C-alpha cells in the first residue's frame, strides 16, 4: 500500500512538472536579419512619451520613467557640420532602398497580433493591427559606434501621437535596448534610451513646425552619434543636440513604430542610409 501511494505521489509530481517554464533557445546572432520583439507591451497613459515598454512575460508594476538630465551642447563648437549631413558626408557606406527584404530578414513578411512588417514596392511597410501594444522594431546587422543614420519615411495612415523613427546602438536584436529617435503624426519629436537600467526619456515630445504632419507626408529623419554627443535632424535641418552618457558602444541599426491612436497606423520606410564616422 505504501508503495502504491509513493508511486501515485511521484506520478502526480511528474505530471504537474509539465507546467514548469522551459528554457528558451538562444537566437542565432550570426543571422544578417533581425528579429522583432513581438511581445512588448506599453502601459496605457495620456502621455505616450513616458510609456515604459516591458516584456509581457514579466509584467511588473508600471510607472512613468524619469526624464534624464541632458546637457545642450554649445552650437558654436560642433565637431560635424550642423547643416544637412547627407550633403556633406559623401556617399553612405550602407544604403537600402528595399528592392528586397534581405538586409532586414524580410524575404517573407513578419506578422504578430499587433503588426505586419513586410518589404514591398520599394519600401519596408509597418502596418499596425491595434493600438498601445508598445514599440515594434526591425534591425539590420550593421553596427558602428559613431555614425550618421538617416531614414526617409512616408506616412500612409496615422493620427496624433502615432510614432515612427530610427533605432541605433542596439546591442542585440531582441531585448529592446538602444536609442529610439521618433516623430509623431502631429508634428512632435522625442528621444528615448533603453538600457540595462530601464527606459529613459531623454527628450520628451517637443513640437516643431519643420516636421510634416498628417497622412501622405515624407519626413527624412537623421541621427548623428559621435561618442556621447547626439544630434537630431529632420529633413536635413538640425533640431537639437545633446550629451548623453547612456549608450556609447556600437550596436545594430533600424527603424521602429508605435501605434497609439490609429489601429491601422501604416508608415513606409522608403530609404535608409548609414555613414560610419571615425
* General shape: globular
Describe the main β-sheet briefly.
10 strands, antiparallel
What structural class results from the helix and strand content? mainly beta
CATH architecture: Sandwich
Mean pLDDT level: 79
User: What is the gyration radius calculated from CA atoms?
Assistant: 21 Å
CATH superfamily, please?
Exo-inulinase, domain 1
Could you tell me the CATH topology label: Jelly Rolls
How far is the N terminus from the C terminus? Answer: 78 Å
Topology:
Layout: H1 2-16, E1 40-42, E2 53-55, E3 71-72, H2 85-88, E4 94-96, E5 110-111, E6 115-120, E7 123-128, E8 136-140, E9 147-157, E10 163-170, E11 178-184, E12 188-195, E13 198-207, E14 218-226, E15 229-234, E16 237-243, E17 252-258, E18 266-276
Antiparallel strand pairs: 1-2, 3-16, 4-18, 5-6, 6-7, 7-18, 8-17, 9-14, 9-18, 10-11, 10-17, 11-12, 12-13, 14-15, 15-16
